[in-house]
Amino acid sequence: MANQVKEQEAIPVSKVQRAAKFISTGAKVGGNYVKHYAKKMVNPALDKESLHQSNATDIYNSLSQLKGSALKVAQMMSMDKNLLPRAYQDKFTMAQYSAPPLSYPLVVKTFQQHFGKGPEQIFETFTRSAVNAASIGQVHQATKGEKLFAVKIQYPGVADSVSSDLKLVRPFALRLLNMNEKELDHYMGEVEERLVEETDYVLEVERSREISEACAHIPNLNFPKYYDELSSERIITMDWIQGLHIKEWMDTKPSKKSRNQVGQALWDFYHHQVHNLMQVHADPHPGNFIIQENDVLGIIDFGCVKVIPEDFYHGYFSLIKRELLINEEELNQIFYTLEFISDKDSEVEQAYFKGVFKEMISLLGKPFHVDRFDFSDDGFFEQIFQLGDRISNDKMFKKSRQARGSRHGLYINRTYFGLYNLLNQLQAEIDTTKPDWLK
């Protein structure tokens, strides 16, 4: 819980303050490398684990004080087990639930700026300590009459520092992700757009209502109600959803039937959005879901939504048709459209990357090739991680100086990666509901 973590009395808000924080962190990381290589001279067998531990701690501590876009990027990276060494995964995962919260005086100041009064003048009760704190905001519990609310408060300065923070975090991302600058720049614009949207709480309330209403018919889902009169550009008030996060719920040893019911609701929720709404809740990390009584799944955060362009949708989702993998001409055209290959590639590069993407699609598309899929099959996930590891370390892949894949795929890939991981955590076996055109 956030109130067990030391509270912050202030956040670096100006560009100079935030840049200074990054510079001091860079100096610490540099010092860690010097110490590591000095120790290695004495002990040549020393591996990089202790270096990763030191760097992960220093970087996370810095990002957690800055909040905002930089911490959000850490959270995103922690979801991919192939992306970072284990020490970074373990530390950055904390951004999903337990970043250091703001102190109460800063919370009061935010309320006064947006409502002209403090939270205790608006609500009958309001927790002085946050019950959850993450990358962009923190949540307090409040009551008014018989209503129990979740009140999400955005950290000061986060909305104004998205662009400058991403520039500052760039050197860390290049080193941690082992990407070249061209690849990183190809996707940074997409990340910036989504992060700017995430700081717009008025937009979040609009999208929350729109998607909640459009998904209300799906069995075993629950969405909070949002309250305009108690919300603003930086504060959202919604119903408190009572229940457990997935890890806590799994610790209660739920039955297979219960796990399958929750997993089915999750799958149906995502596929209705993708194929019928052409937009999707693109932040499927465990902190955004609550499992309630009777195995009902509560969806509590619509800050990150990816609108899916129609031309991208048709190319991307046609790849789940198994027969397409043997139709070279059609597959070539789709690979060009999705920017997996380009005219700049040599014949050798084109052949190599076609093979790589066909192998990836064949494996990742398995749930779509059957009517029912068991996500508790750890062997399936081991295959995914081994393939990712093999490809990312392949010399041909590493020497390519070109970004691979449309920018629109960044958040869709992230969504499916997160969805698969959540279903694996649930150990769920589900009917893999498909769009009509795939049946």
TrEMBL record:
Keywords: Kinase, Transferase, Ubiquinone. InterPro entries: ABC1_dom (IPR004147), Atypical_kinase_ADCK (IPR051409), Kinase-like_dom_sf (IPR011009), Prot_kinase_dom (IPR000719). Residues 125-439 form the Protein kinase domain. It comes from the Bacteria. GO terms for molecular function: ATP binding; protein kinase activity. This is Predicted unusual protein kinase regulating ubiquinone biosynthesis, AarF/ABC1/UbiB family. The lineage of its organism: Bacteria, Pseudomonadati, Bacteroidota, Cytophagia, Cytophagales.
